[in-house]
Amino acid sequence: MHVHILGICGTFMGGLALLARAMGHKVTGSDANVYPPMSTQLEQQGIELIQGFDPAQLGKEGDNQPDLVVIGNAMSRGNPCVEAVLNRGIKYTSGPQFLSEHILQDRWVLAVAGTHGKTSTSSMLAWVLEYCGYEPGFLIGGVPQNFGVSARLGNSVFFVVEADEYDSAFFDKRSKFVHYHPRTLVINNLEFDHADIFADLAAIQRQFNHVIRTVPGEGKVIWPSDVEAVQQVIDMGCWSEQEIYSKASTLGSDSTSALASTLVNEGEGEPNAWQSRTIADDGHEFEVLFKGESQGIVNWALIGQHNIENAIMAIAAARHVGVGPSHAIEALAQFSPPKRRLELLATVNGVAVYDDFAHHPTAIATTLQGLRAKVASSDNPNGNIIVVLEPRSNTMKSGVHKDTLANAMVLADVGYLYQADNIGWDIHASMANAPLPVTVFNNIEDIINAVAATANQGDTVVIMSNGGFNGINQKIIKALG
């Protein structure tokens, strides 16, 4: 077929484009305001990108008109191409439905869901399976550096998918993940997010229970014991085997006992809990325990308690398809985080510059926690952490997190925030009582100049946004040089 994708530079849709092309289809696509890494990845794979949504890209009947249009969830009624598809009667579908019908049939789907950590955990899981010879297919909302691409068909029955709770399309308001029918389901965590499509946390929980209802009885649901919102979803009904990660019993370096034997697998009536014991304060070394017994020690390039939790979930999911924890631990020692997940871009005149996708107060706080521990154990333990933050997500723009954002940055030393024109709340007012010096700017160039004037040798700059941020990353690197 000739498959044309509207919104092709979204992380999900870009990955879908790679899969469709690998299946032998002719793939084209369009988007607006494209930015790396997805635009770069698509161009490297030889997929034609069209800027904008002029209906001329859809050709004419019998003359280069696509056989199928896959419409991304960022597209809405009124979009010129969407209107042309509907008016001409061109066959169309959503991205998740295309994935389900054309790729996931007869696959063992391992789905990673949750508010935070989906990209990192699914990347870890795909790499563990690859390292152990499983040759999985995958579709991940980022670019795992161990693979260099965000999606591939694979050479086995196993397929890892980042399972997003965002809606499927303008004509299908169900969460994407209800299309995937996983046999192994990971739920990392659950908080209120996506305020543009969900009224409250309960609305999100209903969608999570919908995906749990699709897991077979012989499948497995892996979830953290101390996240009340996830426990409530499980209580709504779960008909599959369960494995639990006891986040609350994460152990200090002076103890390896008392491993929460009260945690019970409800289906089997026996202890079935995973734990972690942090060895290095920044999280680059930790012990993995299952049912009270050590499985080995992970020593890797990542930092932060959140990544320890992600790793445990990946190890547990891999075990469900036959990978022993010791082999998974070996694999994680060679794991490189996905791009834009606390990715070190450069060190310029002694200043480390990181790019991070964090766009929710919890993710911001956990990232800074790991970074602070890393700085404390470095050769420059007194180095400052400078946060450059763009509140860009729809939830951020709506002001849902305006009262919690300042405290999320408490472990940084300086904050520079961008007040874009489309933000519906006064960031200056919200930062008035911030626990660190915060300056709010309306101009990107002013932020760059401020960072260049503030950062000294031994300092760390972390740029946080879930978008392109007007190319600020490379501009800051250039200014520091």
UniProtKB/TrEMBL annotation:
Family of the protein in this entry: Belongs to the MurCDEF family. Mpl subfamily.
One example GO MF annotation: UDP-N-acetylmuramate-L-alanyl-gamma-D-glutamyl-meso-2,6-diaminoheptanedioate ligase activity
Protein name as catalogued: UDP-N-acetylmuramate--L-alanyl-gamma-D-glutamyl-meso-2,6-diaminoheptandioate ligase
GO biological process: cell division; cell wall organization; peptidoglycan biosynthetic process; peptidoglycan turnover; regulation of cell shape
Pathway: Cell wall biogenesis; peptidoglycan recycling
Keywords annotated in UniProt: ATP-binding, Cell cycle, Cell division, Cell shape, Cell wall biogenesis/degradation, Ligase, Magnesium, Nucleotide-binding, Peptidoglycan synthesis
UniProt cross-references to SUPFAM superfamilies, sorted A to Z: MurCD N-terminal domain, MurD-like peptide ligases, catalytic domain, MurD-like peptide ligases, peptide-binding domain
Reaction it catalyzes: UDP-N-acetyl-alpha-D-muramate + L-alanyl-gamma-D-glutamyl-meso-2,6-diaminopimelate + ATP = UDP-N-acetyl-alpha-D-muramoyl-L-alanyl-gamma-D-glutamyl-meso-2,6-diaminopimelate + ADP + phosphate + H(+)
Organism: Shewanella livingstonensis
Known function: Reutilizes the intact tripeptide L-alanyl-gamma-D-glutamyl-meso-diaminopimelate by linking it to UDP-N-acetylmuramate.
UniProt: ATP binding residues: G114, T115, H116, G117, K118, T119, S120
Documented EC number(s): 6.3.2.45
Annotated Pfam families: Mur_ligase (PF01225), Mur_ligase_C (PF02875), Mur_ligase_M (PF08245)
PANTHER family, sorted: UDP-N-ACETYLMURAMATE--L-ALANINE LIGASE-RELATED (PTHR43445), UDP-N-ACETYLMURAMATE--L-ALANYL-GAMMA-D-GLUTAMYL-MESO-2,6-DIAMINOHEPTANDIOATE LIGASE (PTHR43445:SF5)
Mur ligase central domain span: 112-318
Domain of life: Bacteria
Cofactor annotation: Mg(2+)
Domain Mur ligase N-terminal catalytic: residue ranges: 2-105
Domain Mur ligase C-terminal: residue ranges: 340-467
InterPro entries xrefs: Mpl, Mur-like_cat_sf, Mur_ligase_C, Mur_ligase_C_dom_sf, Mur_ligase_cen, Mur_ligase_N, MurCDEF_pg_biosynth
Class in the EC hierarchy, top level: ligase
